[in-house]
C-alpha cells in the first residue's frame, strides 16, 4: 500500500510539474510608468489571456462600501464610442471576452482573444477603451445599483448567507470584511457617479498595476501592449498602506431564527494570513481534516458515522489579512447541539493526536491533484501567476511545491494546528429553527 501511495503521489507531482514548469518560465519586467509585467509564451492554442490588476480593491473604499465593485462593474458597460449593447455586440463579433471585478485587495480586468491579428487588434482596442474611456451612464448606473441593492436584500432570504454575514461581522467588526448587507445597502444608495469617477482616477494607475500575459503571443508584442496600457493608465501618486483588518477573536454563540427544518452552522476563529510560515502545513492538514469532500475526516465522522449532516467542510481563508479557519455544515434542528459538539471533538482529536501517516499521504496526493485542475488552462495559469505576484512568491513556487508537500510531516501539521486552531475559542453562528422568535 505504501508503495502504491508513493507512486500515486509521484504521478501527481509530475502532473503538477507540467503546469509548474510553465510558471517558472515566466518572464518579468517593469514598464516606464512602473507597472509590473509577467509574460508566459504558450503557443499550443491560438488564444491570448491577459489580466490587468490594479490596487483598487474594497480595502480602498473607506466607508463607501461597494464602491470598488460598482466601479469595476460599470467599466464594462460601454465606452464613449460604443453604448453597452453595441459594446457587447462588438465583443461577440470578435469572439472575445472582457470582464472586470473587484476583490478585497484589487480590481482586475481580463481579456481573452484569439490571436489572429484581425481579431486580436480590435479586441485590444476595446480593452484599452474599457480601461481609460469607459462611459459612466446614469441610467446604467441606476440599474446596476438597484440590482446590487436587491442582491443585498436577497441575503435575508438565504440562511447560509445570513450565517456567513453574522460570522464575518462577529470576527471582523467595524471593517469592510465584516460589513453587513444593511451597511452595504445604505452605502450603495448614497454612491454617486462622481464617487466612481474619483475612485477610478485615484486608483487605476500604472504604478499600482500588474499585467499578466499567457498565450500564443510573442514577447515583443506583449512588451508593446503592456507599454501602451501603462501609458494609458499613467503614473499616479504612491498610495498609502492598505487599511488594516483587525480581527476580534471570540467564542460567542450567535443564534438567529429562520423558519426552516435545517439549521446552518458556521464555527471558526481568526487564524493566519497568506504570509504565515504555517500556511502550507495548515492547508495540507486541513485538506485531510475537512477540505477533501467525502474522504475528509469531518465527513467520515459527522456524516458517515453519525449521520448528522449531508455535508461538512473546513477551510483556511488566508489572504492579505488574518483570515479565519472555518467549519460549516447544515443539520436538522434537533441535531444542532450534538453536531456542534461532535464536530469540535473531531477537530480537538485531530489536534491532539495529529494526522495518521497513511491518511496524510492520500490527502497529499489529492491536494496536488486538485492543483493540476487549478492550472489546466491559460486563464487559470494567468490567475495563478497573478496570485504569486500578489503575495510576492517566487515564480518557481509551484515547481517546488510537490517536494515541499511531500516533506510535510504529521508532527508539523499537528504543531501548526495547535498554534492556530482551538475549538474552545471558536465563534459559533446558528441560523435556523432553533430559537423562538
TrEMBL record:
Where does the Peptidase M16 N-terminal domain start and stop, copy by copy? Answer: 46-176
List residues of the Peptidase M16 C-terminal domain.
191-366
The region annotated as signal peptide is 1-22
Parts forming coiled coils: none
For this UniProt record, give its keywords in alphabetical order, as a comma-separated list. Signal
Which molecular-function annotation in GO is an example for this chain?
Answer: metal ion binding
Record bears the keyword Oxidoreductase: no
Quote the Gene3D superfamilies the UniProt record gives.
Answer: Metalloenzyme, LuxS/M16 peptidase-like
User: Sorted alphabetically, which InterPro entries does this protein's record hold?
Assistant: Metalloenz_LuxS/M16 (IPR011249), MPP/UQCRC_Complex (IPR050361), Pept_M16_N (IPR011765), Peptidase_M16_C (IPR007863)
**Record's superkingdom?**
Bacteria
Q: What is this protein called?
A: Insulinase family protein
This chain's source organism reads Candidatus Ignatzschineria merdigallinarum
Amino acid at each position: 500500500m505504501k508503495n502504491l501511495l508513493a507512486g500515486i503521489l509521484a504521478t501527481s507531482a509530475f502532473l503538477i510539474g507540467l503546469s509548474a514548469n510553465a510558471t517558472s518560465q515566466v518572464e518579468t519586467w517593469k514598464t516606464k510608468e512602473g507597472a509590473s509585467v509577467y509574460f508566459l509564451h504558450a503557443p499550443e492554442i491560438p488564444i491570448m489571456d491577459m489580466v490587468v490588476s490594479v490596487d483598487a480593491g474594497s480595502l480602498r473604499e473607506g466607508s463607501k462600501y461597494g464602491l470598488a465593485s460598482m466601479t469595476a462593474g460599470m467599466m464594462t458597460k460601454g465606452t464613449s464610442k460604443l453604448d453597452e449593447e453595441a459594446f457587447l455586440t462588438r465583443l461577440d463579433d470578435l469572439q472575445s471576452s472582457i470582464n472586470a471585478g473587484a476583490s478585497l485587495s484589487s480590481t482586475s480586468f481580463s481579456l481573452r482573444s484569439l490571436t489572429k491579428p484581425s481579431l486580436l487588434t480590435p479586441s485590444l482596442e476595446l480593452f484599452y477603451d474599457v480601461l481609460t474611456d469607459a462611459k459612466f451612464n446614469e441610467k446604467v448606473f441606476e440599474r446596476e445599483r438597484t440590482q446590487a441593492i436587491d442582491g443585498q436584500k436577497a441575503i435575508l432570504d438565504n440562511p447560509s448567507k445570513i450565517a456567513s454575514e453574522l460570522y464575518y461581522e462577529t470576527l471582523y467588526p467595524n471593517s469592510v470584511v465584516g460589513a453587513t448587507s444593511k451597511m452595504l445597502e445604505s452605502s450603495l444608495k448614497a454612491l454617486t457617479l462622481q464617487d466612481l469617477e474619483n475612485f477610478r482616477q485615484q486608483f487605476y494607475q500604472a504604478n499600482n498595476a500588474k499585467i499578466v500575459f499567457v498565450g500564443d503571443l510573442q514577447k515583443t508584442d506583449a512588451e508593446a501592449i503592456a507599454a501602451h496600457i501603462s501609458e494609458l493608465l499613467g503614473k499616479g501618486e504612491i498610495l498609502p498602506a492598505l487599511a488594516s483588518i483587525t480581527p476580534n477573536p471570540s467564542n460567542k454563540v450567535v443564534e438567529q431564527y429562520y423558519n426552516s427544518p435545517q439549521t446552518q452552522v458556521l464555527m471558526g476563529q481568526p487564524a493566519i494570513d497568506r504570509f504565515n510560515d504555517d500556511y502550507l502545513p495548515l492547508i495540507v492538514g486541513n485538506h485531510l481534516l475537512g477540505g477533501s469532500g467525502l474522504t475528509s475526516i469531518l465527513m467520515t465522522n459527522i456524516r458517515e458515522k453519525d449521520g448528522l449532516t449531508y455535508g461538512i467542510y473546513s477551510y483556511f481563508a488566508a489572504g492579505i489579512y488574518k483570515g479565519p479557519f472555518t467549519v460549516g455544515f447544515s443539520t436538522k434542528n434537533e441535531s444542532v447541539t450534538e453536531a456542534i459538539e461532535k464536530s469540535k471533538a473531531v477537530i480537538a482529536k485531530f489536534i491532539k493526536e495529529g494526522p495518521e501517516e497513511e491518511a496524510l499521504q492520500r490527502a497529499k496526493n489529492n491536494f496536488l491533484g486538485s492543483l493540476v485542475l487549478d492550472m489546466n488552462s491559460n486563464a487559470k495559469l494567468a490567475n495563478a501567476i497573478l496570485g504569486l505576484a500578489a503575495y510576492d512568491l517566487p515564480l518557481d513556487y509551484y515547481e517546488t511545491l510537490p517536494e515541499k508537500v511531500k516533506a510535510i510531516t504529521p508532527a508539523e501539521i499537528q504543531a501548526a494546528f495547535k498554534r492556530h486552531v482551538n475549538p474552545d475559542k471558536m465563534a459559533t453562528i446558528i441560523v435556523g429553527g432553533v430559537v423562538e422568535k
